[in-house]
Amino acid sequence: MDYTRESSPEKAVLTLSGDLSVRCAGATREVLAALAEEPRPLEIRFGTVTHSDVSLAQLICAIHRLREAAHVRTTLGGKVPDGIRGLLHDMTQCQFGIQIGTECLWKGYESYG
């Protein structure tokens, strides 16, 4: 798992690449957890992803839920690889700033639709 972080006054951008499967879930979790309390909107992007699985969808949902509870926007940006898009659609039915699904798994929080 590799990542880069960029910041501007308006938002933070995290780009994830490489192995984003359960083999690297701990490292991915640490990177996302470090941004849980980022006060600016967070945009998650993807570089060249070599592997991904349901663990990535779970981690993205977790960071989304934490940040949404704090009323801070989290979106997916750029080109979302088809495999990741499919996982998020099937697992979460969440709208992450792109038309992935119709309803966020974390009902009761503000919708991003």
Can you walk through the features of this model?
This protein is of the alpha/beta class and 113 residues long. It has a single domain (2-92), classed as Transcription Regulator spoIIAA. The chain is 33% helix and 26% strand. A 4-stranded mixed beta sheet has the order 1-2-3-4. It is globular, with a radius of gyration of 13 Å. The relative contact order is 0.17.
Instruction: Sketch the major β-sheet.
Output: 4 strands, mixed
Shape, please?
globular
The CATH top-level class label:
Alpha Beta
Biggest sheet strand order reads: 1-2-3-4
Quaternary state of the chains: single chain
Helix content: 25-40%
Radius of gyration: 13 Å
Mean pLDDT reading:
80
Q: Figure out the total of helices.
A: 3
State the end-to-end distance.
30 Å
- Binned strand content: 25-35%
| Classification by helices and strands | alpha/beta
Write the layout of secondary structure elements.
Blueprint: E1 2-7, E2 12-20, H1 25-34, E3 42-52, H2 54-69, E4 74-76, H3 82-92
Helix pairs in contact: 1-2, 2-3
Short characterization:
With 113 residues, the protein is an alpha/beta fold.
Structural key phrases:
113 residues, alpha/beta, Transcription Regulator spoIIAA, 4-stranded mixed sheet, 3 helices, 33% helix, globular, disordered C terminus
